[in-house]
Amino acid sequence: MAQLDIEHARDGMSHTRLQARQAGYVHHAQIMLVAASLAAAGIVAVAATMMTTLL
Prior knowledge:
Order of helices and strands: H
Number of strands: 0
Shape: rod-shaped
Largest sheet: none
Oligomer: single chain
Radius of gyration: 24 Å
Distance between the termini: 81 Å
Strand content: under 5%
C-alpha cells in the first residue's frame, strides 16, 4: 500500500514538472511573438518614413 502512495506521488511530481516545462515553452513563444511584432512595427515605421521623404 505504501508503494502505491509513493508511485502516485512520483507521478504527481512528473506531471507538475511537465506543466512547468510547458508553461515555460508558452512563455518563450509569447516573448518571441512580442519580439517579432516589435521588429515588424520597426520595419513599417522605417518604410513609412522613407515613403514620406520620397513624396
